[in-house]
Amino acid sequence: MNNEKVREFVSQLEHVEESVQWGHQLVFWAGHKAIGGKMFAMLDLVGPGTDKAQCVAMLAAGPEGMAELCEMEGIRPAPYLARAHWVCVERWDALPWPAWKQALARAHEIVFARLPPRTRKILGMEPKARARMVRERKALLKLRAAK
């Protein structure tokens, strides 16, 4: 189990985007963040056992999923995100691969269901129109940041 195997699986889910945030987190988004997409999972690119890496992965789990997953050894509430019902997986072997796939798909499903109506409308557009909307929104955000 590793980052690439998770990345390969997650990229097959509907409307998934990725970015590197905070210097060492590979973040997976349900929808592009420029159009209101929300993150549903993060992988630490630094690796476990380093000062920066507390978890190999963090993901949305929902209230019931969080309670269930936190009963397992090597899984605990995620730092800073526990109030949003995210879990921290401390090592790759905390879950077998089928359970990883189930947890990642569930994280995507939970977050995707809570996307704002405007974001869902954009995601329902044809790919070219959606890409144009993302480009326009990124340009607008860049312009606002420059002010």
The CATH top-level class label: Alpha Beta
Q: What is the overall pLDDT average?
A: 91
User: What is the chain-wise order of helices and strands?
Assistant: HEEEEHEEHHH
Task: Examine the coordinates and then state which fold CATH places here, giving the name of the CATH topology.
Answer: Aspartate Aminotransferase, domain 1
Helix proportion of residues, in percent? 40-55%
DSSP helix count? 5
Q: What share of the residues does DSSP label as strand, in percent? A: 15-25%
Give a quick precis of the structure.
With 147 residues, the chain is an alpha+beta fold. It has one domain: Aspartate Aminotransferase, domain 1, CATH 3.90.1150.30. The protein is built from 5 helices and 6 strands.
Any overview of this molecule?
With 147 residues, this protein is α+β, with helices and mostly antiparallel strands. It has one domain: Aspartate Aminotransferase, domain 1 (Alpha-Beta Complex), CATH 3.90.1150.30. It contains five helices and six strands; from the N terminus they run αββββαββααα. It has a six-stranded antiparallel beta sheet with strand order 1-2-3-4-6-5. The mean pLDDT is 91.
Secondary structure layout:
Elements: H1 3-10, E1 16-21, E2 25-30, E3 38-44, E4 57-60, H2 62-69, E5 75-77, E6 86-89, H3 97-113, H4 117-123, H5 127-146
Antiparallel strand pairs: 1-2, 2-3, 3-4, 4-6, 5-6
Identify the notable features of this structure and list them briefly.
single chain
